Amino acid sequence: MKDFKAIRLSYKNTPLEVRGKLSLSQDDCEQLLKTYQNDERLNELLFVSTCNRTEAYYIADEDISESLINNICKVKEIEDTEANQYFESVCDPKDVQNHLFRVAMGLESQVVGDIQISSQVKRAYQWTADHEMAGPYLHRLMHTIFNANKRVQIETEFRDGAASVSYAAVEMLDELTSDINDPKILVVGLGEIGTDAVRNLQNTSISDVTIMNRTFSVAEELASETGYKTRPFEELWKAAKEADVIISSLPIADYFNKENISSLDILAFKCFMDLSVPRSVAENVEEIPGVIVYTVDDINARADKALEKRIKAIPHVEAIIEASLSEFNKRTQEMEFSPIIKGLKNTLEEIRDKEVQKYDSQLSSKEKKQVDKITKNLLNKIMKVPVLQLKATASANKKEGQKMGKIITDLFDIDLEKR
């Protein structure tokens, strides 16, 4: 598909602050899709937006990246001059295809093999389909991606384990609380890692989560997004006493120390997961009976092991992508020439039928069946040569394939509009 294009920006070239300004919600994506529903310049359109990237994939004869960027900026109410320095326009269809595959598989994620990205891409495709902005090409491409994703899940270790500190912390927490009925979790400190941990908790069955931050408005905003509870930072020690597990990413060394933790009157069990560097949970806290502390090094060891597995699986994932893309493009190419092939077959069938009809009155019922069978077999054998040649030529050189298709169309006077 020569007209498949994209615009993109990601964590690789864009600061977090700018990514946040240009991140598209479902409402934003749907508003943009509606904007382009009657735009004659493009036929199909898909927006993919996460905390790490904002991208648009489209089919159009011309490069309309400027229009897309301007409309994204309008929706987000920011100056397009700020966005233009980060957005990249890509007009090579092979690069665009490959990039979308890699994004959907998690190869382009900050956390390699990110398990959330495939769901985010599926949701983006659903919004596109709902607004009738996905045509035959995007439908086939997206379903090819979803099938490739299943193969990655089944055949590789690319999605095994948690490969980031926040992922690993939540995975460990889920295991630690498996025997606790309705565990109470407290997350203190909502920097990047703390915020990621809160979002990752949404993928567990744990529902009793309280989040706290020294700037209360930050906690309120995240609580609104996730549906979790929040409390003022002044109530930290009361909340800590009630919690079974405390996840801390406070940038204050030894904030949780032996003296203030001892005052919580721990009766049975309390776990601290310290995601801070330097430590926000003092080393001697583990001397308190019933207290367990996991440091960022403990959690990193778990994440590093998972990441090593994922990195080893990358060549297998890339081989699956290559095979899937090859098959997709082969089928797409065949579909491009299918009207010509169908037209040729119909034209030859009309010739065959007319010739057979000339001798209809001279043949017995049995002879008619034999003639019909023989001539159909001949037709199929005659068809096989140009069809195979057309496919082989197009596979080697698409332009030459198109030339051959035109020759066949002209030679047999095939009207493609009627096919």
TrEMBL record:
Enzyme Commission designation: 1.2.1.70
Pfam families assigned: GlutR_dimer (PF00745), GlutR_N (PF05201), Shikimate_DH (PF01488)
Domain Glutamyl-tRNA reductase N-terminal residues, every copy: 7-156
Matches recorded under InterPro entries: 4pyrrol_synth_GluRdtase (IPR000343), 4pyrrol_synth_GluRdtase_dimer (IPR015896), 4pyrrol_synth_GluRdtase_N (IPR015895), GluRdtase_dimer_dom_sf (IPR036453), GluRdtase_N_sf (IPR036343), NAD(P)-bd_dom_sf (IPR036291), Shikm_DH/Glu-tRNA_Rdtase (IPR006151)
Binding annotation for substrate: 50-53, 109, 114-116, 120
Active-site residues from the entry: 51 (nucleophile)
Catalytic activity from the UniProt record: (S)-4-amino-5-oxopentanoate + tRNA(Glu) + NADP(+) = L-glutamyl-tRNA(Glu) + NADPH + H(+)
Stated family: Belongs to the glutamyl-tRNA reductase family.
Additional comment: During catalysis, the active site Cys acts as a nucleophile attacking the alpha-carbonyl group of tRNA-bound glutamate with the formation of a thioester intermediate between enzyme and glutamate, and the concomitant release of tRNA(Glu). The thioester intermediate is finally reduced by direct hydride transfer from NADPH, to form the product GSA.
Entry comment, domain topic: Possesses an unusual extended V-shaped dimeric structure with each monomer consisting of three distinct domains arranged along a curved 'spinal' alpha-helix. The N-terminal catalytic domain specifically recognizes the glutamate moiety of the substrate. The second domain is the NADPH-binding domain, and the third C-terminal domain is responsible for dimerization.
Purpose of the protein: Catalyzes the NADPH-dependent reduction of glutamyl-tRNA(Glu) to glutamate 1-semialdehyde (GSA).
Subunit structure: Homodimer.
Entry protein name: Glutamyl-tRNA reductase
Organism: Flammeovirga yaeyamensis
Lineage of source species: Bacteria, Pseudomonadati, Bacteroidota, Cytophagia, Cytophagales
